[in-house]
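Section handout 9: paired folding examples.
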Amino acid sequence: MQNMHILDEIVRWQKSGLSRGIPSICSAHPWVLREALKNSDSNNLCLIEATCNQVNQFGGYTGMTPVDFAHYVHAIAEEKKFPMENVILGGDHLGPNVWQDEPATSAMQKSEVMIRDYVQAGFVKIHLDCSMRLGDDSEGALDPRTSAARTAQLAKVAEASAPAGLPLPRYVIGTEVPIPGGAQEHETGVSVTKVEDAGETIRVMQEAFQREGLAAVWERVLAVVVQPGVEFGDDFVLEYQPSAARELSRFIETQTMVYEAHSTDYQSLDALKNLVRDHFAILKVGPWLTYAFREAVFALAKIEDELMPTSRSNLIQVLDEIMVERPEYWKKHYHGSKAEQALKRKYSLSDRIRYYWTNPRAQAALDLLMKNLNEKPLPLSLLSQFTPKQYGKIRRGEIAATPEGIVLDHIGEVLLDYEIACRAD
């Protein structure tokens, strides 16, 4: 995996004035990963990340441990003939978030095990996040020095766990990010991180690394997470405004690292280009990719409704029934009347529906939908009606006129914006 050092190269490119970055695919969805790992260019690199609540030593909500996730990604890469050495694995928000209701001692012990498992499984890009107050911490916001000390504690474990023959871990620090998965209320603006706060984060973290004997390791801290002023929710997107982040952009030019931007989903191509130009060189994207999958699958379900008077998958109805029966993944996020909640379950940009695709009933409905639509050629008239972008590509011979081709291309359109933005110069 010699190309892991591309992360160092991105920092060097940025410091030399080049507008270069890398997308971070934050998804375990098989269709998303199949498109992300499409072997269209042997020089492509693919950064795929798992979060602490998604993948950990207890399985997380995906049921996968770090080594399980690594094998899962590598199997898809092998299927798609994507070079294994060009796959970069990252761990996101690795720390005690999953166990924040427990006392600090037990929460940090579990975090250490998780960090060890991630690093030993071949994850190289490690975002350390100890920003949350734990069960026996004092009330109020956690002291930044405590957060920094815990971060350095986990970095020390990561260093001791690094397998021989693989690149040493590259670290991301900082946690001032949008709410994972999108805001829960409609917002008209968010506060960009203050330069003094970004500087303080870097200072206390570096001091904590030095106290742990990790001064040399600090050189492998590639990025700090800040809030650039981007956000999205059920039905709104706050687009990046370069003028609001001008001072933040100038500040990082004086540092050895770059920025990592979280929740960049649904930003325009121009906004993504501006983020990379302003040194937000790592662009995280997740819900937009599964939203694109959902959007394409729902369009295919509408085509199925027109073609199949009986034996339909009824996929849209089945998914909603499952979500109503098991509301734990959306109830805290979708508010309003019953009608408003029903609309959000299907179409919210937060895409909480992504947690339900692994449900056996949902998977069976999806399988039946694909089977039904693969039995005979899809009518061009219905493709034009329900998938107009893909219809044009089919007519031009750019993609196959199959349900699988349509879904993957719809996901690919999102990925293409990130690829263009990260190679803007």
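Moving on to protein 2 of 2.
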Amino acid sequence: MSHEPIQIQPRCEGRVTEIVLGPPPGNLVTAALVEALSAEVRRHMRDAATRHVKAIVIRGDGRHFSFGASVQEHRPDTMRDVLPAFHRFIAELLACPVPTVAGISGLCLGGGFEIAMACSLLVAEEDARCGLPEIRLGVFPPVASVLLPLRMPEAAACRMVLSGAYVSATDLYRLGLVSRLAPVGGLVDAVDDMIAHDLLPSSATALRFANTAVRERLMRAFTERIPEAERLYMETVMHTRDAIEGTEAFLAKRPPVWEDR
């Protein structure tokens, strides 16, 4: 079992780069994982050696995609660095010209789900479940608040953000966020099949131009709106008593006691 935040696995004679999040079982979105992901995405944006790459696949090591952000890092003194770095990475992922594919199995939560929804295409096993549990920690998910209403019906996006409820991959497929469903245990084959039929036959150059063009609205909306969401989170929400209580209750494995302030 690897304890590195990510593993890089070139595939299809170098035409596909697979990024495996780790370490399992949770594949937590830590500062180290975000830094490693950011470096790899930037490499594909700037390094001429990657010009033949036609897809970047991101999936989790083991049964799950990701349990989300490390709650240990979710305190005001650490979040002042962690959250802006995460938002910079999401902006890089949205701007990456190479088509990105999130391969989702098991649980895909919080910051992990935000990484997946920022990818060009999502493939998920039928029993996978996605959710945004931040509200139950007394906070909210800034990235999802900006991107999710643009990628699926607004009413469904509002329910995910406001309730923290987990939503099945089959429901997300019906809502249009998930591009393709895979049978349980068949994620890798489904991702490979989609890439083989939809991406590999095309020019890597053409795919990069097309991916950039089709994602321009998402990238522009994120660039315009995430600074205000980040300010609201860092300057207001993180200083409420309920945000502090939510984190402490989670770490103590007890129900939170909300003061509504």
